[in-house]
Amino acid sequence: MSKEFREFLRKVGSGTHTSKSLTRQEAERATVMMLQGEATPAQIGAFMIAHRIKRPTSDELAGMLDAYKFLGAKVAAIATDKRVLVLGLPYDGRSKTAPINPATAIVLAAAGIPVLMHGGDRMPTKEGLPLIEIWHELGLNWQSLELAQVQQNLEQHHLGFVYLPKHFPLAQSIVPYREQIGKRPPFATIELMWSPYQGQQLIVSGFVHPPTETNIREAFAKHGITEFATVKGWEGSIDLPRSRTAIIGINRGDRFERLTLSARNYGFSSEDPAIADASEIAAKIISALKNEPSEYLNSVLWNCGFYLWLYGLHGDITEEIAYAQEIISSGAALQKLEDLRG
Question: Which Pfam families match (predicted)?
């Protein structure tokens, strides 16, 4: 048993009236101790559930992010003056709506925008459809790549994927606790914020609850991260919905802007594609990249239009939607998938 960790646990787990938040330095140390197995399983589980009940502060998230940056996978900067778009999505996948972001990433890559994604296998407690299964059905075996190969894909093909079990096994080692405690721990928020990339970047973090977004913004500020966006997408993802207004936050330098977008204002219906298994989602992606009309393709165009605009290729989302359509119609997006398959 770690006596040092016990003090952290006593601090956050003392109850509604007497518990205290950790400092940034304490949160970093506690996270390192959990990731490296210095804390006992009983202590780790107790800390996760106590912290879940207390709710993490922005200082604590900043400290946890310090630990992830210190111990986590690192993708070297690529030879480009472009920012890498880093997409922070929930690792526990989707259970209601079809993931759009793999198709979005392919189209963005075809437009010359480098995109880095990260995630793992099916994750407790939700056990939703993870991205890795979709990529596998698309013929891309991200699981077997070394980090140097991830960096090479990002540089040559503008798309890379960091796979948690292989590239950050210390974080993978605490995944079973999610099932045992039956709740998402604060690490689920860190996964939305963490970036393995070591160069110039633009981070996009999905969120569900407004207090989570506030904490993400404040923790990013403590890290000096000034180029990021927050998206209240489907199931905490960065996928813009069509059936409701998308709520987005964009931070550039010292300026934060709130944006609300309705797909109807851009000519799309309010229908969101429903979840399916990985093979069916992969088939929908290929169909969309072939420019075969479908509601899935409409969601791809809607999302690509926004992210092309966010990245700054053109000045208007309507122009970007037309540009995304051009990329798909020309066959460039489908060719990008073929290039990635090698």
Answer: Glycos_trans_3N, Glycos_transf_3
